[in-house]
Design goal:
This protein has 81 residues and is mostly helical. 36% of the residues lie in helices and 0% in strands. The radius of gyration is 18 Å and the shape is elongated.
Length: 81
């Protein structure tokens, strides 16, 4: 990351912030990481169920990652409001 900062930022404006330090655990203990493999025809329903369970109704936040932007656009169009 420092190399990227050096390439694209002015030296006098660059600040490195290390939020993890030397800790072996890089993610918050409150974060749940789920990988739910499913057939592509079922992904909208699976994503909707996960968001319903862990998202707004579950009083938490939910991030859904897709492989491409096009996949994200398709999935967002298939999800209910």
């Amino acid at each position: 990351m420092r190399d990227v900062a050096r390439r694209f930022q002015r030296a006098d404006k660059t600040t490195h912030v290390d939020l993890v330090g030397t800790d072996k655990v890089k993610a918050s203990t409150d974060v749940k990481h789920l990988a739910l493999p499913c057939h592509w025809t079922q992904r909208a329903q699976v994503a909707e169920d996960v968001v319903r369970c862990y998202g707004r109704n579950g009083k938490g936040r939910c991030l859904v990652f897709t492989e491409t932007k096009n996949d994200a656009n398709e999935l967002s169009g298939q999800l209910a409001d």
